[in-house]
Model the fold of this input.
Amino acid sequence: MDNLIAARATMGFSLGFHIIFAAIGMVMPLLMSAAHYLFLKKKDPAYLELTKMWLKGVAIFFAVGAVSGTVLSFELGLLWPGFMKHAGPIIGMPFSWEGTAFFLEAVAIGLFLYGWKRMKPWVHWCTGLTVGISGFVSGIFVVAANGWMNAPAGFDWIDGAAHNVDPVKAMFNRAWLHETIHMQLAALQAVGFAVAGIHAFLYLRGRAQALNLKAIKIALVFGASAAIAQPFAGHFAGQRVAELQPAKLAALEGHFKTGPRAPLYIGGIPDEDTQTMRWGIPLPGMLSFIAFNDVDAVVAGLDQVPREDWPHVAIVHVSFQIMVAIGMVMALSGVLFFVFLKRRIFPHWYLCLLVLFIPLGMIAIEAGWIVTEVGRQPWIIHGIMRTKDAVTPVPGMVYHFYLFLVLYLLLWCVTGWLFHRQIQAVQKKFEDVP
Done:
């Protein structure tokens, strides 16, 4: 395993691990604050139990997310010194603001954890809400930095170096808005459906059904709303990608030949050698419509891109198909939720479906990030710096790969054990509650 592959693999599984906890860290405090708000308004003790139950989960995932995020910051300097040399002065601002948001989040979670009966109720609630808002804002800043990698701005690239740096323009680059909306909605729907699925599982086992039904409703108000909005955000993102990264759009749709009425494929495996799509179901003109709101529009294919600048088409396309398929199923389930909520009854089959959704949103997030990151290759800064030119020249990165792999596996095991204990404690506590 050479340095480049080892560095990319290390960064890949580190990001893949951290993004799950980042999403949970952004959304769970909002669910917790919603339950706490309902308790303060309705004085129903079930909402207080939910608040304290979810608070324990927030504390666990916050701690793990902090550790995995810290490791990522070290990896940026360790694995990609060529990138940090040029990118650090340009996108340092969103990272510093992300650190500030994280600091506020840490302070707020401490106040909420130990503020019971020590603060006025609504002041205490505000500290919990601050945890959620800070986490959400933190995610926006990180995605803004990633957006800059996809649509670099705020500098002039002269003789292999950045000049005339404008950090504000760099942060609010042309990709930050659609990436931020898409990612934040993805976090809301993934975590909302996962939490609803866990409580649906407990409900189906007869554990504290009234309490778990309240939890399902709170979680899906967030998750279902985001899932319904996500296809529209995805359409907006697709149009921006068509403008900013046509090679990525062509790869994620397996579009090899430039032309009008470009088809959108359902399924299929791209064959880079023959430049055809195998086993896919084409929808003529739909890719043109998604990209330009015109079924007759010309969409640039990979034939317009030098072969050495192609991303891995099959990986990008399959990941995109997985993300879209899960997103559409969740959007439909979100519509059904509001229908059943209005009728005040949730069928048994729908609750069983929610259990199946526990991992699906997270799988969609992972697939989406594969699309974003692999789709940008071979560039670490799109059109400016290749990934191979940013990697560290220090040999032996394969050992760091194994070291970080063991570290993250240990973190995963500890987190799984703690979360399992939490679920068992909840079941035991409510084992005799109707």
